[in-house]
Design a protein that fits this description.
The complex is a heterodimer of chains A (about 200) and B (about 270).
Chain A: E1 2-8, E2 14-21, H1 35-47, H2 49-55, E3 63-70, E4 73-79, E5 85-91, H3 121-135, H4 149-171, H5 184-197
Antiparallel strand pairs in A: 1-2, 1-5, 3-4, 4-5
Helix pairs in contact in A: 4-5
Chain B: H1 4-8, H2 19-27, H3 31-34, H4 59-75, H5 105-128, H6 146-162, E1 168-171, E2 180-185, H7 207-219, E3 224-230, H8 240-248, E4 253-259, H9 261-268
Antiparallel strand pairs in B: 1-2, 2-4, 3-4
Helix pairs in contact in B: 5-7
The chains are: A alpha+beta (about 200), B alpha+beta (about 270).
InterPro entries (chain B): NO_sig/Golgi_transp_ligand-bd, TRAPP-I_su5, TRAPP_component
Keywords (chain B): Endoplasmic reticulum, ER-Golgi transport, Golgi apparatus, Transport
Pfam families (chain B): TRAPP
């Protein structure tokens, strides 16, 4: 899977962005978004902020799980108590292209921007999850299936690690809650959490 | 063209000077070199968030620091008036505006506490939530309703700041002020070593704590204005009952929390 992680402040401005790939099942930790997908990712994440706003008073959990889907990209969200949002977009690779078997940078997972809309996601995700399940390796790691409980669990642990690092960053009196997180150590820590769990 | 030659000359005054050695070092100002870490190579990210036992501050140093904060704020202030609030950038998308009336001591103290509350909220919730590593543990939560929020303020927050919970939480009895809640502290730690002069007797330096509470409320997305008031009852000769309480707890302070209209409406609407 390829991941696009971003932290969004209370006024919908991104504070931190990071792209990375899976490190499980032989993945090399590099993101494999096609150029179009890379350009679309911020828009997809931004569009699901409305759903976060709808959910935030109904649930009191910080981890809101998988909240949105656009085409084959899935969005998971963690809402900090101060309404800063951690958004993780995860794009599974197609079954026949496990990350280890993508040799050239020219071959990307297919990106179909405008074919399926989120309202009809229930049927499409059901069909796609069945194909993913048949193809997952038996490594016991995260299945290449964004809807599976293992993925949900892994993302929960990832978010919790990021939450901890984020608290440490914002405890700094010189770091505003609403300003860009530019610390290279912060980035390393987030990458480390991604390598550990995703 | 000939005039250019003398102009160019001063740029390279030392032809044999160590310019080549300078060039390569300037070419790689990487993140490694620009990042300054302490000598023991430990950044703030290496510290443990849960180490609280040894992190307690002595009361003497706190009292000294707080007295200095008050006098610092007082030096740059023109008057003391009730209920002013400098406009604070709203942490929630719901814009709340309480107009700028006066830049007062109380406002300054409150504004100093505000960022503290914003930071304490996630920190304390992180500390109190169960370890996430066991999947059976419940998901960590955040306050979304008024009562859990006030409980959070009166217990974990107060205990963290002052070593004991707050003394009472009350809801305004009248329907007109439905959005008002009160947290009572019989003997605020911040006021223990502050003696307010008689001509400034309406000033309560617990405005700083009110700012912390306000930061917590606003951080949750429940915009509120919080102010600290004496209940001692020497000046406001209101009820006789208040006077009796004042004898027992001369420093008794009430933190009046006024939530915005939208917050109360959402509460009544069942949180949807």
């Amino acid at each position: 899977m390829s991941y696009y992680f971003t932290i969004i402040n209370t006024r919908d401005a991104p504070l931190f962005e990071l792209e990375f790939g899976t490190s499980k099942a032989g993945g090399d930790g590099a993101a494999r978004f096609s150029p179009e997908a890379r350009a679309m990712n911020p828009f997809i994440v931004h569009s699901s902020l409305d759903i976060v706003d709808e959910l935030r008073w109904g649930k009191d959990a910080m981890y809101l799980k998988r909240i949105d889907q656009f085409s084959s990209s899935h969005i998971s969200t963690f809402l900090t108590p101060t309404s800063i949002r951690f958004m993780l977009l995860h794009l599974p690779h197609p079954p026949n292209l496990a990350p280890a078997f993508i040799p050239s940078p020219g071959s990307y997972p297919p990106f179909t921007p405008y074919t399926s809309n989120p309202l009809s996601s229930s049927t499409s995700s059901a069909s796609s999850s069945s194909t993913f399940k048949s193809s997952t390796s038996g490594a016991g790691s995260i299945a290449n299936n964004p809807a599976s409980p293992q993925t949900e669990e892994a993302i929960r642990l990832f978010f919790w690690d990021v939450f901890e690092v984020w608290i440490k960053a914002t405890m700094n009196p010189f770091q505003s809650m609403e300003k860009v997180l530019g610390s290279p150590v912060f980035k390393q820590r987030v990458l480390g959490a991604g390598r550990k769990y995703l | 063209m000939t005039s250019h030659a003398p102009l160019q000359k001063p740029i390279t005054p030392f032809p044999g000077a160590p310019t080549p050695t300078f060039a390569p070092t300037s070419q790689k100002p990487t993140a490694q070199t620009s990042l300054r870490t302490p000598s023991n190579r430990k950044t703030i990210y290496d510290r443990n968030l849960n180490r609280t036992r040894t992190a307690e501050l002595s009361r003497a140093s706190f009292a000294y620091l707080f007295a200095e904060i008050v006098s610092y704020a007082q030096k740059r202030v023109t008057g003391i008036q009730d209920l002013e609030k400098r406009y604070i950038i709203p942490p929630s998308p719901i814009v709340y505006l309480l107009p700028t009336l006066n830049d007062t001591l109380r406002t300054r103290l409150s504004n100093l506490g505000h960022p503290l509350g914003l930071r304490l909220l996630p920190l304390l919730l992180h500390r109190t939530s169960p370890s996430p590593l066991s999947s059976s543990s419940p998901l960590p939560t955040r306050p979304t309703r008024i009562i859990p929020l006030l409980n959070f303020i009166a217990r974990p927050l107060w205990t963290h700041l002052f070593g004991r919970p707050a003394d009472a939480i009350e809801h305004s009895a009248s329907a007109a002020s439905d959005n008002e809640y009160m947290i009572t502290d019989n003997e605020p730690l911040v006021n223990q070593y502050i003696s307010v002069p008689r001509e400034m007797s309406q000033l309560n330096c617990a405005a700083f704590v009110a700012g912390v509470v306000e930061g917590v409320c606003c951080g949750c997305g429940m915009g509120a204005g919080v102010s600290a008031h004496w209940v001692g009852g020497e000046e406001d000769g209101g009820g006789g009952g208040k006077g009796r309480e004042g004898e027992m707890w001369p420093g008794k302070t009430v933190f009046l929390i006024r939530f915005e209209e939208g917050v109360v409406e959402r509460e009544k609407g069942g949180g949807g």
